[in-house]
Write a structure and sequence with these properties.
Distance between the termini of chain A: 70 Å
Distance between the termini of chain B: 22 Å
Number of helices of chain A: 3
Number of domains of chain A: 2
Strand order of the largest sheet of chain A: 5-11-10-7-8
Strand content of chain A: 35-45%
Oligomer: heterodimer
Structural class of chain B: mainly alpha
Number of helices of chain B: 11
CATH class of the largest domain in chain A: Mainly Beta
Strand content of chain B: under 5%
Shape of chain A: globular
Largest sheet of chain A: 5 strands, mixed
Helix content of chain A: 10-25%
CATH topology of the largest domain in chain A: Immunoglobulin-like
Shape of chain B: flat
Radius of gyration of chain B: 23 Å
Chain lengths: ~230, ~350
């Protein structure tokens, strides 16, 4: 009978820790007219890659819908370090499909496994080009149908570049964080950073082309909302 | 270069030297294409190619950027072989000791180039690409010089009447202009290896102005509006200023070359070979300026940018050969090289 109160107390504490965490949500919009995307003509002209397309694909630096909702913005809690759960997190996947990297914008934790696949029937090289010391540069062969390549990065870094030098229009940007508190805005411009403990934080929104914005937010016992508006001048 | 007389030219040695120089020029072009197509790292291993012996890499896999990088490596091996043969041939068949050592220098330089190119790939060092590109230009000049030194013109050249000599001020001006061209080539190589595409997208203005705004806000706007097909790095204020320096130096080189051509014509006469060569040099620099503009207007089209590299190499080579020939014509008259009548060949006559 003495065990019962202990079990109840433990259950209440664990439920309490979940209940005390909340999400940071918001929407990211773009003001102004972004520059026109370009057709990736070299891709269509490539014998192997071009055969996979009926029409010429375009670049997608600015993924904006009619309402101005901006996708592919990396949103994170600024200044949080040493909280990475990357080692136990599920691997993230970066695929080479149709001679393009999918997705082009990705975010992972330090120590988290990143699997790079080659779903194409042609040769690629996977060239990771970190700029932060402690994240080593590497350049590996990946034949058609070849084995997946694994990566992991020990240091936080924004927009670490992955590219294929065989097909120079292929590139992706992987941001590495030292905590699980990050996300990427979807096609509706919406983002959700999950399970943030109560407290005051600085939320940072970073777009590959438009730079970075920050806002302060306080998380209490319910979801906190913060919106960002980027502008193209 | 003066002093001991040669025993006349060896036509086959000279032809082989010309072949080596010609292949080196082609190699420069292929190297230019590698950088222009951003293919420098498309073959991750060296000296193998995707695990194959370089010479056994299947042709079916010569795709995309691999085509440029792999053919560059193959031709580089060919140039290495030609240079080795040339160095050995010079050592055993040319009586001039300084030519023996020049051949050795050429051999060592081509080996160094091969290693530099390989290390650039295996160590992922972009900065080595700048050295590799610059030394390539110097090596090209050296192979052309070897062709000149083994030529009949060089063997038969003898001091003539004073009017045949090239005035010192003209030689100095051409030398200074050639050195400026070399500096411009280093600048160009540095720009190309930033992998940031066109730092300034318009010409002759720069972002619509005579001198562009390089404030942080302005540069952020330039990057925000830039849509590239390749994974180019963001441009920086430094890169914009580098491009502006390149443009200003181009103007300075054009003016100096024009002065050289005018002075050569005035001091040597319009029919003199070196005066004509100076005129050709000016035309080449004008073409180079047009290619530079075309590189910007075509948004750095790979073939245009590579042509710009090649004409730059030719400009450096022409200036260098002009200097060497001018100094050869102006060598002091000594007992070993007595004055001959204009057009006569006392050296060959003595060796008959």
């Amino acid at each position: 009978m003495k065990i019962y109160p202990v079990v109840v107390l433990a259950a209440m504490l664990s439920l309490g820790s979940v209940a005390w965490a909340a999400d940071i949500v918001g929407v990211i919009t773009l003001k102004g007219t972004p520059p026109a995307e370009k057709e990736i003509t070299p891709l269509k002209e490539d014998a192997n890659c071009g055969a996979m397309y009926q029409t010429t694909p375009t670049t997608h630096f600015y993924v904006v819908d009619a309402k101005g909702d901006l996708a592919d913005v990396v949103v994170s809690l600024k200044g949080i370090t040493g909280k990475s759960t990357g080692a136990s997190a599920a691997p993230a996947v970066l695929d080479q499909k149709g001679c393009l990297y999918v997705p082009q914008i990705l975010a992972i934790q330090t120590g988290q496994k990143l699997i790079v696949k080659n779903s194409d029937n042609c040769i690629h090289n996977v060239h990771a080009m970190p700029a932060v010391a402690g994240n080593p540069e590497s350049n590996q062969v990946q034949m058609a149908g070849g084995a997946d390549l694994d990566f992991a990065f020990a240091q936080p870094e924004m927009f670490l570049k992955f590219k294929c030098d065989v097909h120079p229009w292929m590139f992706a940007w992987v941001s590495v964080f030292d905590s699980p508190y990050f996300c990427i805005s979807d096609k509706d411009g919406k983002f959700v950073i999950k399970n943030v403990p109560p407290g005051k934080y600085t939320v940072e929104a970073a777009h590959r082309k438009l730079g970075t914005q920050v806002q302060a937010v306080e998380v209490k016992d319910s979801d906190a909302t913060v919106n960002f508006t980027f502008e193209v001048k | 270069m003066s002093g001991k007389a040669t025993t006349g030219s060896n036509p086959w040695l000279h032809r082989f030297a010309v072949l080596t120089a010609g292949c080196t020029f082609l190699l420069l072009g292929l190297g230019g294409l590698v950088t222009s197509h951003e293919a420098g790292m498309s073959v991750p291993d060296w000296p193998n190619t995707y695990g194959y012996n370089m010479f056994l890499f299947p042709f079916s896999q010569w795709v995309g950027g691999i085509f440029y990088e792999h053919t560059h490596r193959l031709l580089a091996s060919g140039v290495g072989l030609l240079t080795t043969i040339l160095a050995v041939w010079l050592w055993f068949k040319d009586s001039r000791k300084w030519m023996h050592w020049l051949g050795v220098v050429a051999f060592l330089l081509v080996v160094a180039q091969g290693v530099l190119g390989g290390l650039r790939v295996t160590l992922h060092m972009d900065s080595l690409g700048i050295f590799h590109g610059t030394i390539a230009q110097l090596f090209f000049v050296l192979t052309c010089a070897l062709a000149l030194f083994t030529s009949r013109w060089w063997a038969e050249m003898a001091p003539h009447q004073p009017g045949f000599r090239v005035p010192g001020d003209l030689r100095t001006l051409v030398l200074a202009t050639t050195l400026l061209i070399f500096g411009q080539l280093i600048l160009g190589a540095t720009m190309r290896h930033q992998h940031a595409g066109l730092a300034i997208p318009d010409f002759p203005l720069a972002y619509g102005k005579i001198w562009p705004d390089t404030s942080p806000d302005a540069v952020a706007q330039y990057n925000a509006r830039r849509i590239s097909l390749n994974s180019e790095n963001d441009i920086t204020a430094f890169q914009i200023e580098l491009q502006m320096t390149h443009r200003i130096m181009a103007l300075a080189i054009f003016i100096l070359t024009a002065v050289c051509a005018w002075l050569a014509r005035r001091q040597l006469g319009g029919k003199d070979a070196l005066a004509k060569l100076a005129g050709f040099w000016l035309a080449l620099i004008f073409l180079q300026a047009l290619l530079g503009a075309a590189t910007v207007w075509s948004n750095k089209a790979a073939d245009v940018a590579t042509a710009h590299v090649l004409v730059g190499a030719l400009s450096l080579m022409i200036g260098s050969m002009w200097c060497i020939m001018a100094f050869r014509r102006s060598e002091p008259i000594t007992e070993a090289r007595p004055l001959g009548a204009f057009g006569s060949q006392p050296i060959l006559a003595a060796n008959k």
